[in-house]
Amino acid sequence: MAQITLKNIAHSYMEDPSKEADYALKEVDHVWRDGEAYALLGPSGCGKTTLLNIVSGLLRPSHGRVLFDGQDVTDMPTAERNIAQVFQFPVVYDTMTVRENLAFPLKNRGVEAATITERVQRVASMIGMERELDRKARGLTADAKQKISLGRGMVRDDVNALLFDEPLTVIDPHMKWELRTQLKHLHGQFGHTMIYVTHDQTEALTFADHVVVMHDGRVVQIGTPEELFERPAHTFVGYFIGSPGMNLLPAEVQGDRAIIDGHEVPLGAGYGDMSGKVEIGIRPEFVRLSDDVGLPVTIDRVEDVGRHRLVRTTMQGRPINIIASEGGPVPSENARITFDPSRINIYADDWRVEGRAV
């Protein structure tokens, strides 16, 4: 296991980058602590895999250094970094049995036979392949082959880090949940440093201790699932985390009040003079419907999703989503909404502004 330090890392696929837009990965300067589980979360093309490949040694960064436990490994090949990496699509040895595939990393390192047998059996149980241990990999489905790849990454207990690049893409939904649970259990049991790349917020939030949210080649926030939900550092985080994401409304902020289309909204904190693009952010969970107070909205439709209802409204053409209780009343007309002041976030030019107590 290792503490991974990224010192001023940036990368461009161009030979002579001259401006920030030329970089697929903007500057990252961060320490990933030994033994913790991280998820790199963001949409396709945001730089997640680029960053992972820099950590693994498959890609040398254009700028900056990578350190494992203080040792500079920037120019060290992947084989010498002592990491295990599982890719998006399965990589297995078709001529080997499932058992031989799982045992291969251990045999290469001279692990004794009894230990190999025990670890292979344990991992096969975790990935649900005990009955296929003596089958050749050639005839297995892509789903089963990816489970072998996951198992081969998990069978070693001496690695500096386990790296996963969208490993559950080809796994069926039920098995995804089971494997995420098993990965979490493995991390708790052995304490490997784990980095897990995904575009799926459910995978990231249920797997990781800390989620690294990336947008347009930049790390915009690193935090716990609770921090990302309650205090998104950037409007993209508010939009990307949650289903549906955070409501964002242009506003004028005056001290502990916001003005939206001429209507006053109380805030849970005070703010100084603000310039640029100013918005308030409020999660649908913290918006309440009312008949007589608050901002006037038009109700477009109500979606019953089982445990609650999703009320889609608009205010001056801007969408506002509300999560309402299953049995609560929904006005048919002249609807108004209020916000929980303590749950409102304020953004200036897309970045969260910290308020002061009032």
Automatic annotation (TrEMBL):
Entry annotated with the keyword Cell membrane: yes
Location in or out of the cell: Cell inner membrane
Gene Ontology CC annotation, any one: ATP-binding cassette (ABC) transporter complex, substrate-binding subunit-containing
Topology within the bilayer: Peripheral membrane protein
Endoplasmic reticulum is among the record's keywords: no
GO molecular function terms noted in the UniProt entry: ABC-type ferric iron transporter activity; ATP binding; ATP hydrolysis activity
Pfam families: ABC_tran (PF00005), OB_MalK (PF17912)
Keyword terms, alphabetized: ATP-binding, Cell membrane, Membrane, Nucleotide-binding, Transport
Main subcellular localisation: membrane
InterPro entries: AAA+_ATPase, ABC_transporter-like_ATP-bd, ABC_transpr_FbpC, ABC_transpr_MalK/UgpC-like, Mo/tungstate-bd_C_term_dom, NA-bd_OB-fold, OB_MalK-like, P-loop_NTPase
Start and end residues of each ABC transporter domain: 4-241
Family of this protein: Belongs to the ABC transporter superfamily.
Name by which UniProt lists this protein: ABC transporter ATP-binding protein
Species annotation: Notoacmeibacter ruber
